[in-house]
Design brief:
With 367 residues, the chain is an alpha+beta fold. Helix content is 51%, strand content 22%.
Length: 367
């Protein structure tokens, strides 16, 4: 892992944070709402610049950022009844400002995919018979390992049902597996030049669906055609954007419905940087897709109705709309501050955990 690739990955995260905060900032300024702080990161100030109204700052803890408003600044000289204070604006105006960061991340993700498609070309996918098995789970006790499935196998049929050359082949295979806990299934497998027949018994998981312990992928080839057709590029990027959004939402659904299983897969900033560094080192253009994926994840995370996140503030606005008046400032501040502490605590925990899992640190600890 080179220093240059690590810096590239860190730069990606920094840009995505800036984009998110710029969304809030531009939404407020475009409506004439006062903004007194624009900060990237939390904690001690490393650099700052005081503009005519707004202080711009770079801070020491790179776990996000924030746009500050003079509404709660005791040193602000703006009168409390100023109509351009955020708290004095209608609900819709405030909702636009709060949700603008999420919207900015989603738009930026799509633009990144447009750029990647424009550089690499519009992909044309040709599906082949079966479903590919790129790799198995590390656990050697899984159903797939017991049955003798190997990385590189192509599953051609399951229980006599052929997996045709189509986009639906992988969905068909997964559904049969998920609906057959504890039931032996016959697999027809293409292994290099050989045809192999195996019996596998999916294992039931906590959610009632069964799994076999493999990663699946479409058995397909992708040929990219470079074009100047903006419409074709935009449509291709939109399809990939939709795929990423759907997978991200499904991932969060899995996290909340089966937290004990999915929590181990949650990555913090260190793991994300390490992953981005590997991508930057091997294929710099793929870093655009990686950035789009992280940007969509940031958008989905921030829209969750949790304290200290944009979704939490939108939840307060919803309560205000239903009640006809806002909750007390003391209650809102207490909830948001508690949420911020918990969020920072989670970030620090993930940083420590992911750092100890890095290859270099593992070697150091094993001495």
């Amino acid at each position: 892992m080179s220093l240059l690739s690590v810096l590239a990955a860190i730069a990606v995260l920094a840009v995505l944070i800036v984009v998110h905060e710029l969304g809030h900032f531009m939404a407020a300024r475009s409506q004439g709402i006062h903004v007194n702080r624009f900060s990237i990161g939390f904690g001690p100030i490393l650099w700052k610049y005081q503009g005519s109204e707004t202080e711009y700052a770079l801070r020491g803890i790179p776990l996000g950022g924030y746009v500050g408003f003079p509404d709660d600044d005791p040193d602000s000289k703006i009168p409390a009844d100023d109509p351009n204070l955020l708290r004095n604006r209608p609900l819709l105006d405030r909702a636009i400002v709060i949700s603008a960061g999420v919207i900015a991340n989603l738009v930026f993700a799509y633009l990144l995919l447009v750029l990647q498609t424009g550089i690499l070309g519009v992909p044309e996918i040709t599906y082949k018979l079966g479903v590919a098995v790129p790799q198995l789970a590390a656990d050697t006790s899984t159903a797939a390992a017991k049955a003798g499935i190997k990385a590189g196998d192509i599953i051609l049929a399951i229980d006599g049902q052929p997996l045709l050359a189509s986009e639906q082949a992988m969905t068909t295979l997964m559904k049969v597996i998920q609906d057959s806990p504890g039931q032996p299934l016959q697999l027809a497998i293409q292994r290099q030049q050989d045809q192999v027949s195996l019996t596998i018994t999916p294992e039931a998981s906590a959610d009632g669906k069964s799994r076999i312990g493999v990663q699946l992928a479409p058995n397909a080839t992708v040929v990219r055609t470079r074009t100047l057709n903006i419409l074709a590029i935009g449509q291709s990027a939109a399809k990939e954007f939709e795929r990423i959004v759907v997978l991200t939402i499904q991932g969060f659904q899995q996290l909340f419905s089966h937290f004990d299983q999915a929590a181990k897969q949650v990555s913090g900033p260190v793991a994300i940087v390490a992953m981005g560094a590997d991508i930057a080192r091997s294929d710099a253009i793929r870093l655009l897709q990686f950035a789009a994926l992280i940007s969509v994840n940031l958008a989905v995370i921030n829209i969750l109705p949790l304290p200290a996140l944009d979704g939490g503030q939108l939840a307060f606005l919803l309560v205000e709309g239903l009640r006809g008046k806002p909750l007390s400032s003391r209650l809102q501040d207490g909830v948001m501050q508690t949420g911020l502490v918990l969020l920072l605590g989670l970030g620090i925990f993930l940083i420590v955990r992911d750092t100890t899992q890095l290859e270099g640190v593992q070697k150091l600890l094993s001495r």
